[in-house]
Design a protein that fits this description.
single chain; mainly beta; ten-stranded antiparallel beta sheet; five-stranded antiparallel beta sheet; 58% strand
Length: 430
């Protein structure tokens, strides 16, 4: 029997003049998880107890999707659910007039995927009978509406990841799994409609000749048919790095790939960390960037003419957001650091003509910053940091990872909807 569940879809409309500084947030009492560009505006997803009809702000949480449009500032809320189970939408993707969202729901946190049209009208829903949410999830949809999402199976070893491809109509094409994933970095739909899967690999590589030890970051290029057509890994020198993490990948107009994250150096300093490769995976350059503020790159965006902006935070430490322009040669072009509380964390950054839009979790609220061309917003004191760039000396190495076909059932869901109105926007300008 299929379970019925509720999902909140918040349609948020906000106007802002091009290039202006502005800031606002939605009170949700729940984590904001993801944000993505669509033809109708920027979409934000997460969980909320405040917007849950049965909860009224208690611990019962439902999911939400917010659409940042350009109208009068009125807010409407559509709810879908069963009045009993908690759930979250932690990943969004949009392409060709379709929106797909994934996350988890029900008492046992089963993996779910929803399909919507451009107006966020629910068309279908699926729930897995065996897969559950991944700790650091990722998803992506290609130009034809093929959606690749990752989950885990508690019956398998903890380092297996299960990748499922679905069509925009909700048809499951395949599920494949691979092992040795310590932390997933990103899934990216490439210009040729293949997918890039990037992750930090479990374990270490030891050079048999020198006995040097390396940490590893793997990349798999996967077709919509589930075939791995290219694979390689980066070796990160353990004599230089205690640890590292990758959180975002981008492809530029020439097919080059950028990997963004952070590195913990042997002197216990946390630096920004970026790798650039060509389409074959050959490293063009790799740099660390010393900021003095324990910042980690959480998101990045690239324009059609290959202008890059990176967004970093110091979540759980000193706090603070950094926006910076990055040249295709790896040089920092400009930067701006803004003070925040320690537990505000960036989810996405977007280039929007001559301004940048940052979506972040504002300590269990959905925060939105509209920043000018130098990364400044209206939320308070900011400054330019002195950033020192150093070579990371990343090496390319062969990768023996494989996909293994597996059977996972996805079951249809009955959905109910209702409408809520007058969800307020709150200004954060100072």
């Amino acid at each position: 029997m299929c379970k019925v569940f509720y999902i909140f879809i918040v349609i948020l409309i906000f106007s802002c003049s091009s290039g202006s500084q502005n800031a606002t947030h939605i009170e949700t009492k729940g984590i904001s998880c993801d944000a993505v560009k669509s033809a109708e505006g920027i979409l934000i997803s997460g969980e909320s107890s405040l917007l849950a009809d049965r909860s009224k702000g208690t611990s019962q949480k439902d999911a939400y999707i917010a659409n940042l449009g350009s109208s009068t500032g009125s807010v409407k809320v559509i709810t879908v659910g069963n009045q009993s189970d908690m759930f979250r939408l932690d990943q969004l993707a949009s392409s060709s007039g379709f929106v797909l969202a994934s996350g988890y729901g029900m008492a046992d946190k089963k993996a779910l995927v929803l399909g919507m049209d451009s107006d966020l009208k629910l068309n279908w829903g699926l729930v897995s009978d065996s897969l559950e949410a991944f700790e650091e999830p990722a998803s992506s949809m290609d130009a034809n509406g093929n959606y690749l999402v990752v989950n885990k199976n508690l019956a398998a070893t903890p380092y297996y990841a299960y990748f499922t491809l679905l069509t925009r109509e909700g048809k499951v094409q395949w599920t494949q799994r691979t092992d040795h994933i310590d932390a997933l970095a990103d899934i990216v739909s490439l210009r040729n409609n293949n997918f890039l899967i990037a992750f930090k690999q479990k374990g270490a590589y030891i050079d048999g000749g020198t006995m040097k030890k390396y940490l590893m970051a793997s990349s798999l290029w996967v077709t919509k048919d589930g075939a791995i057509i290219q694979k390689y890994k980066f070796l990160v020198d353990r004599d230089k790095f205690i640890d590292f993490n990758l959180h975002k990948c981008l492809e530029d107009s020439k097919g080059n790939i950028y990997y963004f994250g952070s590195g913990l150096l042997v002197n216990n300093r946390t630096d920004l960390f970026v790798i650039k490769t060509n389409a074959a995976g050959h490293v063009q350059w790799s740099y660390t960037y010393q900021t003095g503020h324990e910042l980690v790159i959480k998101s990045a965006d690239i324009s059609k003419d290959d202008k890059i902006v990176i967004a970093a935070d110091s979540y759980g430490k000193s706090g603070g957001f950094l926006l910076a322009g990055l040249g295709t040669d790896g040089k920092i072009l400009w930067n701006n650091h803004t003070s925040t509380t320690p537990y505000e964390q960036i989810k996405s950054v977007f280039i929007d003509k001559d301004q940048f839009i940052v979506v972040y979790d504002k300590t269990l609220q959905a925060g939105i910053l509209y920043c000018d061309s130098k990364g400044k917003s209206c939320t308070g004191k900011s400054k330019e940091l002195s950033i020192a760039q150093s070579n990371a000396d990343i090496q390319l190495s062969p990768n023996n990872a494989e996909f293994e076909a597996t059977q996972c059932r996805w079951l249809p869901l009955q959905l109910q909807t209702m409408m809520h109105n007058d969800v307020k926007l709150i200004s954060d300008c100072k």
